[in-house]
Write a structure and sequence with these properties.
81 residues, mainly alpha, 2 domains, 46% helix
Amino acid sequence: MASGDNSIKNEDQYEALRDKGYSKEKSARIANTPDSGEKGGNAEKYEDRTKKELYNKAKMVGIEGRSKMNKEELIKALRNN
């Protein structure tokens, strides 16, 4: 494994996500967020966002092929990222 800080900040959340079938990478990314384990619920639903907003979010998280996706495909890609 590469050297560096590979620690998980919220081990319980990481393990719960892995048990749900999330990848190691996605589980670690979620478990290492500053507000890991806290409930949010304030985000606007993807369906209520514009295609441009979804595209920008897809760009931010690095989804490839986003420029050729329609709104529904962007939503699916964001949910499965």
